[in-house]
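Recall the central idea of this unit: under ordinary conditions, the amino acid sequence of a chain determines the structure it adopts. In this exercise we apply that idea directly, starting from the sequence alone.
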Amino acid sequence: MAEDSAPAGQGLLNSPDERPVRGPLLDLSTALVSLLRGAPWLHTASESSVEGRLGAEHLQLRTMAFQGGPLRWGRHVELQGDQGTLALNTCFFPERTSTLPLLSCEILVLRDRLHLIALDALPCSSAHESSCRTLLLRSRHLLQIPEQPHAIPPWAQAISSPWAIFLRRPSTLPSADRLVSGVQQATESFLELATRPVGHGTPDPAPQRMFLAAMSENDPAVAYLGRAFGATWARKYCEETLFPPC
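Accordingly, the structure predicted from this sequence is:
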């Protein structure tokens, strides 16, 4: 690693230097964990670390799960491999009786190159539709993404908001500092939204149930985890941690 070739968070992602793609994203993971630990209304439900292997690559999967306030479940997942794999996945699932939206964020690096950025706030009530739109448009501005350049996969379209951010193998990339700022700002805005008084609107658990069902059936991570950590373990992990039933 040539850490001195570019200041942390300043270079473009997917540069030949490993630091701009891995370093800032690991810093982001640390910052997100600090945000979650610092929210007084959240408590840590569990923390775990497990090691696996896929082909020649050794993998380590760290998971932090949390609950509290209007959230029935949340988790922050960090997957690191010694041959260029890095995945960050954070998701907040509201209580069925809450009008809070469902926030999801995934960043995937394969062979030290950015492969996917996905960020969405899915309304679970009309009470927070405008908040979801504002949160995502602000993140889009920070990421300097003027419009949606890539089509959301057909299976995910029904569980995505109209303002979802989805970039697959992007050729034009935000700088590392903008990517970190965009994701961190979205998380901070969501945590602040969760502390506001409940607005008008009827809670609707249907979007959350559709999200969980679609992700359980179609998310490529399910098969990937099975190959890397064993099918039995991965099935239990997906059912209890990644996509807990609503």
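The chain has one domain: 18-242.
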